[in-house]
């Protein structure tokens, strides 16, 4: 992991991009990193495009602004690729992680038309969450994909911390705990890392 890893999330209101960024900050903090996790708010409504951010570092973070040149971009809703410049400012050695059922090659070709030639990872968070939870909650599979692609923490430590988080959050819904852990495990297996 680099000294400072910056991540920008693109989603729509209600899809969990903000929640995912905050969960990533929590789990990274619990694994000894300095963190920031925050959304960018405007007059967004349910379904409107939103942006959230993470900074993860082994050292104290002294920057307090939006992220304009991210190392990684996470696209929660692949439809945003047409309407939002998800590649804006991304480092040449960075990567884009996209929630898609179309596969990595199709998304890479679409991003290449927009001038992006960097690394692309695909995870079918819809299929995974439907299989594991019976509902569409893309943030757990995408969180796992981010951890795998970025290498910001060991996968085992991530899974253990997320299990504790889910046990607290879903204390009265044990099925949600098991389902979310299953979603994380499936996503970790699905995302191929070069």
Task: Describe the overall structure.
The protein has 194 residues and is an alpha/beta fold. It has one domain: Pyruvate-ferredoxin Oxidoreductase, domain 3 (3-Layer(aba) Sandwich). A 6-stranded mixed sheet has the order 2-3-1-4-5-6, with helices on both faces. The longest helix is centred in the C-terminal third of the chain and has 17 residues. It is globular, with a radius of gyration of 16 Å. The relative contact order is 0.16. The model has no long low-confidence stretch (mean pLDDT 93).
In short:
The chain is α/β, with parallel strands linked by helices and 194 residues long.
List keywords for this structure.
194 residues; alpha/beta; Pyruvate-ferredoxin Oxidoreductase, domain 3; six-stranded mixed beta sheet; 7 helices; 42% helix; 20% strand
Show the helix and strand layout.
Layout: E1 4-12, H1 17-30, E2 34-40, E3 49-57, E4 72-75, H2 80-83, E5 95-99, H3 104-113, E6 119-123, H4 125-133, H5 139-150, H6 155-169, H7 174-190
Parallel strand pairs: 1-4, 4-5, 5-6
Antiparallel strand pairs: 1-3, 2-3
Helix pairs in contact: 1-5, 4-7, 5-7, 6-7
